[in-house]
# Entry
Amino acid sequence: MSQTRRSFIAALALGTTSSAFPLLKEIETLDLNLDTSDDEISDAKNWVSKVKGSKKIVYDGTSFNKGFPVHWNWAYYQSNIEMKVPESEITTVTVFRAFGISAAFKSALWEKYALGEFFQINDPKTGKPSIRNFTDIPDKGDLPGGGTVGISEMLGNGSLFCVCGVATKIISGIIAKRMKLDSEEVFKDFKDHIIEGIQIVPTGVWALGEVQSKGCGYIFAG
# Structure
């Protein structure tokens, strides 16, 4: 892959947020394989096929945003349940992409690679850079509005979550370079620590387009 195409895909994955600008020079020095395998494409398409029902929404999580990309997923689901909509008619989707990918990973990865510090996410209990993913299995006070329903519980209710593969490669690559580690090994570590049930997809923008083509309404979640 040429440097020009790599830089283009990197910009596509991370967007043009203020958080991305300081990393552009680091991204340009990375030597990463950003291609997607046939198996990864097949798995991603199978994930999209799970979108069902008449009440369908997708939340675009480009940043962690205090956990709102997760909390609003639950809010839409719960609102429809209270309106007596059958669960079989509800699909809630959250796409973790750009600087929102951190929510897709287990707490062990947050601690190992200091993700709270990297993504500038503080633990609501300590006020310090978080070493846990408090959107997965949250305690009271972790999520906005006192919410206590996190990713794992929503996955059990049939909600769909995915994480951008390109953004994961780029950010794990940056972290690997800063820590003087092998980028392929760190990327594998990231993939191995994706919360069970969350699908890695080629890019977050691809996933957004696919689920909207299945009838999902779109809400920007931060």
Observations:
- The longest helix spans residues 68-82.
